[in-house]
Amino acid sequence: MARRRVRNRWWGRPRRLLWRFLVSGIVAFVAWWWVRHRGEHSSEETESSIRIGGQETPGEPMIHGMADVQDDLQQIEGIGPKVNALLRDAGITTFESLATTDVDQLKSVLRRADLAMIDPSGWPAKARLAAGEAAVDTEPA
Q: Which listed residue, 6, 64, 73, 111, has the most CB atoms within 10 A of its CB?
């Protein structure tokens, strides 16, 4: 006579619950990731050019003839070392270039680095003030 296999009733249910918990966790993670990354590939961000100071520079953004001139953008409230590095990579190295850059372009630069929570709306005005102060400091007395 063949012996009938007895199912362990104490381990069967917890195992099913464990699998359900695991699968629901994976589904929740995939949903969270999709929601977080779905807007990264919009047409605005995939353009190969960046508008700096009212001029469009194709490819790698760079301000021509001003490679040596750099202001300390961290003097502006809300710009720390990380944002300063992002702006420099985008070709914004002086107060003048920051003052003439559109706020939407600044938001796009921040969004690419997952820093969309930072609000750059006051930076151009503060950069204009800082550029005026820098010009006064450099004038001979």
A: 73
In the chain the domains, ranked by start, together with CATH numbers, are 68-138 (1.10.150)
Distance between CA atoms of 118 and 16, rounded to whole angstroms?
A: 44
- The answer to whether 98 and 87 are in contact (CB under 8 A) is yes
CA dist 132 and 37 (Å) reads: 40
Contact 123, 78 (CB under 8 A): yes
The pLDDT tens digits along the chain (141 residues) read 566 665 665 556 777 888 888 999 999 999 998 888 876 654 444 444 555 555 554 444 444 444 557 888 888 888 988 998 999 988 888 888 889 999 999 999 899 888 889 899 999 999 888 888 765 555 555
User: How far is Cα 109 from Cα 30, in angstroms, rounded to an integer?
Assistant: 26
Contact 124, 98 (CB under 8 A): yes
**Half-sphere exposure in the Cβ direction for 60 (13 Å, CA):** 4
The model carries a pTM of 0.49
Reference 119, options 70, 75, 83; nearest CA is 83
